[in-house]
Design goal:
Largest sheet: 3 strands, antiparallel
Strand content: 15-25%
Radius of gyration: 21 Å
Structural class: alpha+beta
Strand order of the largest sheet: 1-4-5
Helix content: 40-55%
């Protein structure tokens, strides 16, 4: 009887460890997919040139258009709706939050170092660009892994 009890306990322990490993692997895939989405959103936003200023020879980004573009790219790459909540079939279950969005424009002296103490983020931009910080929560498959959330950071410069 003792061997049977021991065997059952070992099987349960093995299942729990297997569930933990699967959750950790899926979490790593989730953070990589979400980080790529943040990088794509920042890059797309950094390409939204202000056409009126460009006619005068000034490289500048249009902040409202850049923000809308970043949201649109996040929505499309992470399968989110208008409020940045996951659509059916998305690998996320919780809403995504844009915690910080900054447009660094021609009114700054370049190279410009952007600092955000709240998220311990620093980046140096050599020309106009965008900084984006997005909060993503991992939807655990099993209850073995404690809740995981990331503040993913991305930045991009205007490419010309």
């Amino acid at each position: 009887m003792a061997k049977l009890t021991f065997g059952v306990l070992m099987i349960v322990l093995w299942w729990m460890l297997h569930a933990l490993q699967m959750d950790e692997e899926v979490a790593m895939g989730t953070v990589h997919d979400a980080k790529r989405a943040v990088d794509r959103a920042a890059h797309a936003a950094a390409q939204r040139i202000d056409g009126d200023k460009l006619e005068m020879g000034v490289l500048s980004l249009q902040p409202s258009l850049a923000s809308a573009t970043a949201r649109e790219y996040l929505r499309s790459n992470l399968s989110l709706d208008e409020s940045l909540s996951p659509l059916p079939g998305s690998f996320l279950r919780e809403a995504v939050e844009m915690r910080a969005f900054a447009v660094v424009n021609e009114n700054e002296t370049f190279p410009y170092t952007y600092r955000n103490e709240s998220y311990d983020y620093e980046v140096t931009l050599n020309r106009p660009g965008v900084v984006l910080i997005v909060h993503v929560e991992y939807p655990r498959m099993f209850g073995v892994l404690s809740p995981v959330a990331w503040d993913l950071k991305g930045s991009a410069e205007l490419v010309y």
